[in-house]
Design a protein that fits this description.
mainly beta, six-stranded mixed beta sheet, six-stranded antiparallel beta sheet, 3 helices, 12 strands, 8% helix, globular
């Protein structure tokens, strides 16, 4: 049974499902293509963070340019440049997690969505609807948790959708839904990485 969370909601994944190991984190959205006359290209990413909430190096940033974390614990499905087809339960991009391979220094994995070339294309998350993040147990195919981000965004070009974090040896899910201006570069700075501005 899927647990639907609201912004700020949390759930203990490994307590709800003991032995949980292989996860699929799916992100989806719809776009209003007619607003700017340019196609939207939204990108999902994962920031693999230590106890200080920051990445140690660029190797801890998993995105379309670095599809797999060096540990093998986080694997990105690749860039979907079409996206937003409006079909129900059709993830636009997916990230696989193997909790058994997560390095000991990792306390949190944050999942984000950004709009590629947002400034040049004059696009923002006010033109995106039905955005969600969900977590699926890959071994059983069961959807464990889902967070629909709602329509709270306007001028933002990047969103931290949610994070999976470790607390007292358990893995938990936190529905964040925080927007940023400045796209991917702003997120990189937030997680301790240098990035060129868009």
């Amino acid at each position: 049974m899927t647990i639907n969370l609201k912004k700020g909601g949390k759930i203990n994944l490994t307590k709800e499902k003991p032995g949980l190991k292989n996860l699929l984190v799916g992100l989806g959205w719809d776009t209003n293509q007619f607003d700017t006359g340019a196609d939207f290209d939204l990108d999902a990413s994962a920031f693999v963070c230590g106890a200080n909430g920051r990445c140690r190096s660029e190797a801890d940033f998993v995105f379309y340019g670095n599809l797999e974390h060096e540990s093998g614990a986080v694997i990105h499905s690749g860039d979907n440049k079409v996206g937003g087809d409006g079909s129900e339960d059709s993830d636009e991009e997916e990230i696989q997690l193997d909790l058994s391979k997560v390095p000991s220094y990792v306390e949190k994995i944050a999942f984000t969505v950004t709009i590629y070339d947002a400034v040049k294309r004059r696009q923002n998350f006010g033109q995106v609807s039905n955005a969600y993040i969900r977590v699926v147990d890959r071994d059983s195919g069961e959807e464990l948790v889902r967070y629909d981000l709602g329509e709270d965004f306007s001028i933002e070009t990047a969103i931290v959708a949610a994070e999976i974090y470790k607390n007292a040896g358990e893995w938990r899910f936190n529905a964040i839904g925080s927007g940023f201006q400045g796209g991917l570069a702003a997120l990189c700075r937030h997680y301790g990485l240098d990035a060129d501005s868009e």
